[in-house]
Every structure is written in structure tokens, then in C-alpha cells.
Design a protein that fits this description.
With 114 residues, the chain is an alpha+beta fold. The protein has helices at residues 15-26, 72-84, 95-99, 101-113; strands spanning 2-3, 9-10, 39-42, 48-51, 55-57, 62-66, 88-92. The protein has one domain (31-113). The strands form three sheets. The protein has a three-stranded mixed β-sheet with strand order 5-6-7. Strands 1-2 form a two-stranded antiparallel sheet. The radius of gyration is 14 Å and the shape is globular.
């Protein structure tokens, strides 16, 4: 359980997610996470499934996925979600990328402005 700077008790699924939440709080970047952030996607067999991103950054309208290991199924899921929904998804694949999240957010926002 992680205690956010605003006092919320938030369940995290991994130490990397905890590291990101800690850094976002240190950088005073608002974030949200939970089952209410749901997107539908389809499996290769066209079955409906739900995808819940790890974080949402409301001030930037960016969803964040922390993923150290990518399976083919996870890659297909993220690809389908991005094709079906008009969302910006930032994928952080290492602790180094988590540590550089401020720059990664800025890159993501600036790419969309071009």
C-alpha cells in the first residue's frame, strides 16, 4: 500500500509502480489510478476485454503504463487500445525511464503539439 502526498492509500501492483508514484508526488504531478480508468479492447480472437492503465496524469491527459517485460499479448492489447481509443499512452519500460519521467512527459506532450 502506498500513501500519496494527499493522504490517499493506493494499492500498487509492483515496486516500479510505487517508484513512479513516489517520483510523481515529489515532482508535484497529479496522478490517478484505479478500476475506473477502463478501456475496452479486443483479443486476436475478437473477445472483449478490459484494459486498466497503471496511471493517469490529468494535467497532461496522458495515461502511463509501467512495463518491464512485454509479452506478445500485452503488446497486442496496448496496440488495440490505442487504435480503438483516442488516448495518449506513455510506456515506461525501465527504472531509468521512470527516473526520467518528467522529460518523458514533456517529450510526449511536445510530440502531440507538432
Amino acid at each position: 500500500m502506498y500513501t500519496a502526498t494527499d493522504g490517499r492509500e493506493v494499492e500498487m501492483d509492483s515496486s516500479w509502480e510505487t517508484a513512479l508514484a513516489t517520483l510523481l508526488d515529489e515532482l508535484d504531478i497529479k496522478w490517478d489510478r484505479g478500476d475506473h480508468l477502463v478501456f475496452e479492447y479486443r483479443t486476436p480472437r475478437n473477445r472483449k476485454r478490459k484494459y486498466i492503465p497503471d496511471f493517469y496524469l490529468p494535467d497532461y491527459d496522458i495515461y502511463v503504463e509501467v512495463k518491464g517485460y512485454w509479452t506478445d499479448a500485452a503488446k497486442l492489447k496496448v496496440q488495440d487500445v490505442q487504435e480503438r481509443h483516442d488516448i495518449r499512452l506513455l510506456i515506461l519500460e525501465s527504472l531509468a525511464e521512470i527516473g526520467d519521467v518528467r522529460a518523458r512527459i514533456d517529450e510526449h506532450v511536445n510530440v502531440d503539439k507538432d
